[in-house]
């Protein structure tokens, strides 16, 4: 036969032990004072784009067929780079020193991406037939590929789409160009006053 043992909870005071303190009650709603919510942190100011390019990606002063048009939203319409007129087969150069972070095909187009040395920026060039590989170090002006005969989205002939990114944010790549690279026309030497011509 099985015996059933029932456990009974008996207050310690009945058993002669020390009394337990009364359970603390939470304060009422009127007694609770919450601090005001902290304002959200301000976004860090966007760093300026340094004018560190030493060459144009193609040619010496290529025609800008279409400029940079930032989208209003992350997936909105716009133009996330600039289109530079260039003939098929023309060399495409790294505008500044860096490391090739990608060289291959994306959606059927040849793409080269270069992380610019000493910055958090990277440039992209497409459509190109790459002549470099991922991980290669490149100098400013070094050829990274040639303008591909197909894959251009320019209506009139071939072009190179040149992009600039900081993280996932697209920026205007023309900001990389110092003023002397943006000037049109040949450089001219001016006479120095007070020095006779030789």
UniProtKB/TrEMBL annotation:
Pfam families from the UniProt entry: Peptidase_M23
UniProt xrefs under SUPFAM superfamilies: Duplicated hybrid motif
M23ase beta-sheet core domain location: 78-173
Signal peptide: 1-24
Region entry Disordered, spans: 25-46
GO molecular function: metalloendopeptidase activity
UniProtKB keywords: Signal
Name of the protein described by the UniProt record: Peptidase M23
Species per Swiss-Prot/TrEMBL record: Streptomyces shenzhenensis
